[in-house]
């Protein structure tokens, strides 16, 4: 009997604003679509958090015994600057600035995306479709929406008629907006605007002569609208109605709202049963943004090559840090928080590594079965990973008490404990037992800290041959010391 029959999962549905019993459309099968990255730059750490939340959800659904088809796309065309209707295509712009073929940009950043996700120990999705590979499907949906009267063509572009749609449907139901308010709060259309209403969005945009990413269509050469890509790819691989649609909170409006409108206009019914939204990651209490410098790339965290953190953090530690927050909560990343997660991670791995040698007795005074169910209860409550990790540390506490001889465990319970720990830690949270840096990272940092202190003392005593020797020999070992206003930090090259 599959686990999902005993473990009753509830998920928070953004569409209804309620935690609901999870009942997939087809028993035993789950279709899940998550909006993937627009591959025009290195993957943002905040996006990594979103994708990691859905990786954990994918892992848990699989663990429960569902056959999951997980589709996460690659946006390689049609996503315009500032998510605006008249901006430049993000990939075309990057290609123009760097004098590359747009598909070179796509290839470079798709590879970067995959390599970072691999370091974070993500499972690959079942299908990873690209927007440019589904132009024909997008044109077919546009034709269908035009036929149903919910779109209009003007000067080689096709726009979705939001007002017409709202007469029979509810535009704004996902984000909790009302069309009247949106109309009241938007500026008037300017003379060069060709849309009927400011709320209308492009399904197909005419390509001006200088636009390099273009495809033929019944309305002339052009390119698809960003919102439409996800509707085309999710419908193709998961059907007109599927179970879970996920993405970052920032995509709720307009992107996901538009996906609902397109699907309802073309198929006459709602596309998704459960809408799940992951919350954002801040850095030192502020929004992450390249423009303000309050930003860090995943590889910069792993190597320590940055000015924000005091030392390198292993991908498994960063993953553990992210898993210690609920996916719907805002999470703030800081040196202190990462350092605390690293200690926790090491404590957890130490306990796991000591399980085999744990002494057994005739009886247990630790109820492993109840503890294990508490772990499942946490996950069944809308994937509550912070509650799960708290329960894992409860397990660690018992392991340490047994080690000290203050509690006992039977052989059968010990086997059960080991199996459950491994399921929660490796299979569901997706952590890895990374010996190389993280396990010893604390010790390594302390040793380097000691060397930095000795070097400072040597410098204070004007013993420069010793201070240079420390710096140079560390550099030879691939450890770079950096002297800054805040003192000396290090990075691993
Ligand atoms: Zn999308």
Automatic annotation (TrEMBL):
Catalysed reactions, semicolon-separated: tRNA(Cys) + L-cysteine + ATP = L-cysteinyl-tRNA(Cys) + AMP + diphosphate
Keyword Ligase attributed: yes
Alphabetized SUPFAM superfamilies for the sequence: Anticodon-binding domain of a subclass of class I aminoacyl-tRNA synthetases (SSF47323), Nucleotidylyl transferase (SSF52374)
Chief subcellular location: cytoplasm
NCBIfam families associated with the record: cysS
Cited Gene3D superfamilies: Cysteine-tRNA ligase, C-terminal anti-codon recognition domain (1.20.120.1910), HUPs (3.40.50.620)
Motif ('HIGH' region): 37-47
InterPro entries for the chain: Cys-tRNA-ligase, Cys-tRNA-synt_Ia_DALR, Cys-tRNA/MSH_ligase, Rossmann-like_a/b/a_fold, tRNA-synt_1_cat_dom, tRNAsynth_Ia_anticodon-bd
Signal peptide limits: none
GO molecular function, one term: ATP binding
UniProt-listed Enzyme Commission number(s): 6.1.1.16
Cofactor remark from the record: Binds 1 zinc ion per subunit.
Position of sequence motif 'KMSKS' region: 287-291
Organism lineage string: Bacteria, Pseudomonadati, Bacteroidota, Flavobacteriia, Flavobacteriales
Similarity section: Belongs to the class-I aminoacyl-tRNA synthetase family.
Top EC category: ligase
Protein known as: Cysteine--tRNA ligase
Record-level GO cellular component terms: cytosol
Gene: cysS
Subcellular locations according to the entry: Cytoplasm
PANTHER family found in the cross-reference section: CYSTEINE--TRNA LIGASE, CYTOPLASMIC, CYSTEINYL-TRNA SYNTHETASE
Necessary cofactors: Zn(2+)
Oligomeric form and interacting partners: Monomer.
Keywords: Aminoacyl-tRNA synthetase, ATP-binding, Cytoplasm, Ligase, Metal-binding, Nucleotide-binding, Protein biosynthesis, Zinc
């Amino acid at each position: 009997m599959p686990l999902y029959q005993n473990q009753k999962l509830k998920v928070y549905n953004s569409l209804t604003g309620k935690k609901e019993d999870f009942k997939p459309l087809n028993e035993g099968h789950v279709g899940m679509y998550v909006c993937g990255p627009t591959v025009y730059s290195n993957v943002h750490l905040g996006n990594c958090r979103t994708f990691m939340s859905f990786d954990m959800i994918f892992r848990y659904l699989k663990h429960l015994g569902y056959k999951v088809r997980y589709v996460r796309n690659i946006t390689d065309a049609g996503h315009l600057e500032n998510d605006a209707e008249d901006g430049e295509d993000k990939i075309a712009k990057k290609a123009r600035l760097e004098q590359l073929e747009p598909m070179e940009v796509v290839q470079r950043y798709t590879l970067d995306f995959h390599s970072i996700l691999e370091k974070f120990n993500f499972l690959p999705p079942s299908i990873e479709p690209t927007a440019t590979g589904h132009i024909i499907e997008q044109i077919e949906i546009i034709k269908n929406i035009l036929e149903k009267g919910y779109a209009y063509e003007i000067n080689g572009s096709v726009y979705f008629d939001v007002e017409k749609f709202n007469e029979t449907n509810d535009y704004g139901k996902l984000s909790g907006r009302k069309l009247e308010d949106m109309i009241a709060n938007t500026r008037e259309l300017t003379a060069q605007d060709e849309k009927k209403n400011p709320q209308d969005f492009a399904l197909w945009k005419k390509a001006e002569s200088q636009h390099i990413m273009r495809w033929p269509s019944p309305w002339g050469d052009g390119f698809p609208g960003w919102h439409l890509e996800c509707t085309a790819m999710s419908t193709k691989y998961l059907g007109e109605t599927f179970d879970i649609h996920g993405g970052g909170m920032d995509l709720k409006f307009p992107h996901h709202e538009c996906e609902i409108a397109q699907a309802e206009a073309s198929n006459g019914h709602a596309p998704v049963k459960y809408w799940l939204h992951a919350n954002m990651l801040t850095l030192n209490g502020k929004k992450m943004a390249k423009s303000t410098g309050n930003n860090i790339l995943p590889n910069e965290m792993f190597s320590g090559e940055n000015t924000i953190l005091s030392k390198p953090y292993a991908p498994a530690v960063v993953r553990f840090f992210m898993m210690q927050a609920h996916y719907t909560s805002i999470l703030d990343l800081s040196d202190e928080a990462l350092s605390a997660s690293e200690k926790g991670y090491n404590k957890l791995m130490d306990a796991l590594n000591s399980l085999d040698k744990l002494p057994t007795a005739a009886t247990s005074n630790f109820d492993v079965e109840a503890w294990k169910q508490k772990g499942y209860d946490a996950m069944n409550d809308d994937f509550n990973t912070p509650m799960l990790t708290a329960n894992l540390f409860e397990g660690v506490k018992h392991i340490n008490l047994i080690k000290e001889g203050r509690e006992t465990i039977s052989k059968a319970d010990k086997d059960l404990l080991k199996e459950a720990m491994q399921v929660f830690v490796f299979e569901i949270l997706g952590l890895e037992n990374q010996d190389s840096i993280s396990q010893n990272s604390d010790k390594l940092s302390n040793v380097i800290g000691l060397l930095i202190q000795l070097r400072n003392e040597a410098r204070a005593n004007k013993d420069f041959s010793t201070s240079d020797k420390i710096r140079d020999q560390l550099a030879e070992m691939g450890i770079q010391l950096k002297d800054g206003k805040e003192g000396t930090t290090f990075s691993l090259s």
